[in-house]
Amino acid sequence: MNTTIQEIQKSFETMPFFQFIGFDIIDFDEDRVILKLEIRDDLLNNNHTLHGGIHASMIDQVLAMCIRAKTKSRCATISLNINYLAPITAGTVYATGRIVQLGYRITQAEGEVYTEDGTVLAKGIGSFKIIRE
Question: Thioesterase domain location, by residue (predicted)?
């Protein structure tokens, strides 16, 4: 299968969950992926801070995008560990990731969610199964 970066990007942008949360792709190529999210009231928890599930989803998404951009293959999350470092109540957050170890079947990747001024809000590391077609 000869899938292009543009086709992969479009597959993410048209995914219902991606649209529902409101992710925007800022940068997407084999070497770098950056997601952006404008915080909305419906993404806040009872403490009026961004819900931890949004951090986790953002990291999971950006890591999968990194892997897909590099391998041109789909992947599935095996495990994902998130460390929450700071809360945020409003504004814009970004996520970026990188591949730590690229294997034929299993790949490790890590990422973080951060603010416009560079404050890191959450860090995560995950294991992903590469789905070769």
Answer: 48-121
Domain housing 71: 5-131
* Residues 26 and 34 sit within 8 Å (Cβ to Cβ): yes
| Cα 110 from Cα 127, distance rounded (Å) | 9
The whole-number mean pLDDT for each consecutive block of 10 residues of the chain, a chain of 133 residues, reads: 79 92 92 95 98 98 95 96 98 98 97 98 99 88
Question: Considering only CA atoms, which of 111, 22, 120 is closest in space to residue 59?
Answer: 111
Which tokens go with 127? 């294991």
CA distance 65 to 34: 9
